[in-house]
Amino acid sequence: MANDVPDAEPFSEKLRVPEALTFDDVLLRPMESHVEPDDADVSTRVSTNVALNTPVLSAAMDTVTEGGMAIGMARQGGLGVLHRNMTIDEMVVEIERVKRADELIIRRENVVTASPDQTVREVDAMMEREGVSGAPVVDDNDTVLGIISGTDIRPYLEVGESDEVRKAMTDEVITAPEDVTARDALELMYDHKIERVPIVDDADRLVGLVTMQGILQRREHENAARDAAGRLRCGVAVGPFEDDRAVAADEAGADVLFIDCAHAHNRNVIDSAREICELVDADVVVGNVGTPEAAAAVVDFADGIKVGIGPGSICTTRVVTGAGMPQITAVAGVADVASEHDVPVIADGGIRYSGDAIKAIAAGADAVMLGSYFAGTDEAPGRVITMNGKKYKQYRGMGSVGAMRSGGGERYLKDTDEGEEFVPEGVEAATPYKGTLESELHQLVGGMKSGMGYVGAETIPAFKERARFVRVSAAGQTEGHPHDVMITDEAPNYSPGE
Ligand code: XMP
Q1: Which residue has the CA at smallest separation from atom 19 of ligand 1?
Q2: Which DSSP category does 443 fall into?
Q3: 3-state DSSP call for residue 74?
Q4: What is the pLDDT of residues 191-240, one digit of tens each?
């Protein structure tokens, strides 16, 4: 009765399908190692011309990255990508906020100055109001005449409150030229026992100010991601058809523009992204994609490729549209193409633990982008809310109804007529409040470095080359989480069901 034996072949050719894997399906194969986790070097490139000291980006989402988050990320060596649910003017303000945050030279327009014929009382009140303890004194041409500080005028021993500043100021003022380095400025400050040095041009006109406080603050962030001028790096999301936003971001000093699109493998998007690349000096990362074919379509002009079709914690793209690509397969397929052209790859979305992040790098990514992981930190926009005695912060998909209503989510918008209901591809949620970004990043990067130790690779490129995966069964996944115990104290880098 041989005919009764069912055929092992698929019923239809349509069902002869490739398998696609995600984070929980694989583990890094442990290998002989001479690398201590502390010695692992996690510096990387996010795009052809932009290096980072930490291979981590915060997502371009309105509950994750505005100026505060971007400053925090860059100070820790990573990159914040400003969301685009704001006007172009607002975006420029946020970029400038990041670029100014750790600047060595405070620029002229931001320096509080005094004029020689103000009274001591007026200047004292002005310094108090502006929160500064000293000010260069300049004439109408901005020529530096002297410098006045709290100690010159308080407690009004030698000068009266109604005396003019010219009488109270120190007129032997130590200045420096515009190309001063932090080291030179510090030497001047030590030699002359001063705390601020006005920066002047060839005609002795004020162009900026360097302060001791500013220099010490920069020293605290030795690992920071900085541009050639020493300013913090800043990423910005732009829509694929938003030439104006792209040009404004570029002019405001953004280092990397991220073409922010849910499905970049689309002829119009690619043509427009290519045009944007030609319009700007900044690097342009194109995304999101999820297949080698999509990578091949953009790799000749993109400075970086971002991967992720529906892996995000707040995404409903896969259930709403039926389309998507599990993230480890997506990253590996794109990285195969991108590496041949030496174009960096960013794995975007779906990362819950440090182990997921380092698996994404093992699959071929040069850096990872996270939303939910950072949405609960102090640096994310929005306030802390308390529900049932626990603290949370809001976290929502950029394709959620809320984000679309408040002007964003263009990335997911169909041609919705006025009054017509949105078809969202994301949800609105709350995420546990987590405290400082610094401690979250410490856990994330610490876990990634330990992963590099298990594989025996000291640098990101070496790790990408050496790492191998094993496939994990469902039972293997269960085994990998704490089991058969009741957790009594929360670990800083693990919570069940995260
Ligand atoms: P995680 O998992 O880190 O993911 O929270 C963040 C990434 O998710 C993407 N994103 C969305 N995807 N619908 C989607 O399908 C959405 O509404 C949505 N909002 C954000 C985005 O790539 C982000 O970096």
Answers
A1: 397
A2: H
A3: helix
A4: 998 889 999 999 999 999 999 888 888 888 999 999 998 899 999 999 99
| Predicted pLDDT at 157 | 58
pLDDT bracket for residue 454 (50, 70, 90): very high
Ligand 1 atom index nearest CA of 310: 15
What are 149's two structure tokens?
């500080």
For ligand 1, is residue 425 a contact (CB within 6 Å)? yes
Of 234, 261, 277, 315, which one is the catalytic site residue? 315
65 lines ligand 1 (CB under 6 A): no
Instruction: Confirm or reject: Cβ of 175 under 6 Å from ligand 1.
Output: no
Mean pLDDT of the region 398-406: 87
| Amino acid 341: pLDDT | 97
Instruction: Measure the CA–CA gap between 431 and 426, rounded to whole angstroms.
Output: 15
Q: Which domains does the chain have, with CATH numbers?
A: 23-102+223-379+439-480 (3.20.20.70), 106-212 (3.10.580.10)
Band of the pLDDT at 416, cuts 50, 70, 90? low
Q: Omega before 288 cis (within 30°)?
A: yes
CA 348 – ligand 1 centroid, Å:
8
The pair phi, psi for residue 477, each rounded to 5°, is -65, -45
pLDDT band at 156 (very low <50, low <70, confident <90, very high): low
For residues 2 and 316, give the distance between their C-alpha atoms in angstroms, rounded to a whole number: 47
Ligand 1, atom 14: closest residue by C-alpha: 315
Pairing of strands 50-52, 44-47: antiparallel
